[in-house]
Amino acid sequence: MVLSAAVTDIFSDQLAAWRAYTETPWGRIRYQVVEETLRRETARLGPGLRILDVGGGDGMDAVPLAVRGHDVTILDQSARWLEEARQRAATANTRVRTVLGDLSEPPPLGEFDIVLCHFVLQYRPAAALDVARLADYTRSGGVASVMLPNPAAGVLRQLILAGPRAALDDLDSEITNAVTFGHPVRKIPAVELDATLGQAGMPVVRRYATRIANDLLATNDLKYDSVYFNDLLALELALCDQEPFVRIGGMYQLICSKT
Ligand SMILES: C[S@@+](CC[C@H](N)C(=O)[O-])C[C@H]1O[C@@H](n2cnc3c(N)ncnc32)[C@H](O)[C@@H]1O
């Protein structure tokens, strides 16, 4: 499948829609669960880590890491998103280093203890080269965290929202729609990424998921109730590292270790 060259331009255009998404209950669940999984991953490696967030955008994952004292760099191809990240860091009384650049021509930034690449690869033409670039940025013994929408969960979500015909159509399709950006993106099953990471010398050592419970709920109204939301978030946190739930979360997170 060929994704248009203009695919990355949609990010700057859709910044307002993205902000709105991050404030929804399901957006808050995504970021709060990942803040917890990254807290666990950083705790394994120690304080004062060098962290690179590739396609880190407006810093939603990166800024909480900087607040905890890590040395955080965001590499992104959108100047507007990077400006947003710097503002977010300033509001949180911290700072992040921002680098305007494209993963297709990765700038020399050295090696990092942790490399994040969350919700970028599905917009890119093929995963293998990008994964090799992530490996180049990761020091030996360091880890990378890669997150993507889970195509398997997408089938179940279609079933819940639109019925078995829609689920069958989704199962057969190689692409899906990025809801916030209204743009077709590549489906990358966890098993495929797992193999690609292994081939790049970064075997998967842990897996997490988020929006496991959220995406099984057909209606959203109750999620705006604070008591209900807190229970839902507590459930997501309880399930985020548990088999078999990690296989059906709306978004999967693979942690791989550079050998
Ligand atoms: C869906 S957003 C995800 C932002 C962030 N990682 C998160 O999960 O909140 C995708 C981000 O990847 C960036 N991006 C897309 N293609 C890129 C490329 N080729 N090089 C660098 N950044 C890219 C976009 O500008 C955008 O900030």
Report the bound ligands by name, code or SMILES: S-adenosylmethionine
Overall 3D shape: globular
Question: How much helicity do the residues have?
Answer: 40-55%
Separate helix tally = 10
- How far apart are the first and last residues' alpha carbons, in Å? 32 Å
Largest sheet data: 7 strands, mixed
Structure summary, number of beta strands: 9
Low-confidence stretches: 1-6
Element-level helix/strand string? HHHEHEHEEHEHHEEHEHE
Strand order of the largest sheet: 3-2-1-4-5-9-8
Mean pLDDT: 93
Percentage of residues in strands:
15-25%
Structural class designation: alpha/beta
Provide the gyration radius in Å: 17 Å
Please specify the SSE layout and strand pairing:
Blueprint: H1 10-13, H2 15-22, H3 25-45, E1 50-54, H4 62-67, E2 71-76, H5 79-91, E3 97-100, E4 112-118, H6 127-137, E5 138-149, H7 151-162, H8 164-172, E6 175-178, E7 183-186, H9 190-199, E8 204-210, H10 226-239, E9 251-257
Parallel strand pairs: 1-2, 1-4, 2-3, 4-5
Antiparallel strand pairs: 5-9, 6-7, 8-9
Helix pairs in contact: 3-10, 7-8
Bound molecules: S-adenosylmethionine (SAM).
S-adenosylmethionine binds at residues 8, 11, 55-57, 60-61, 76-78, 81, 102-104, 118-120, 123.
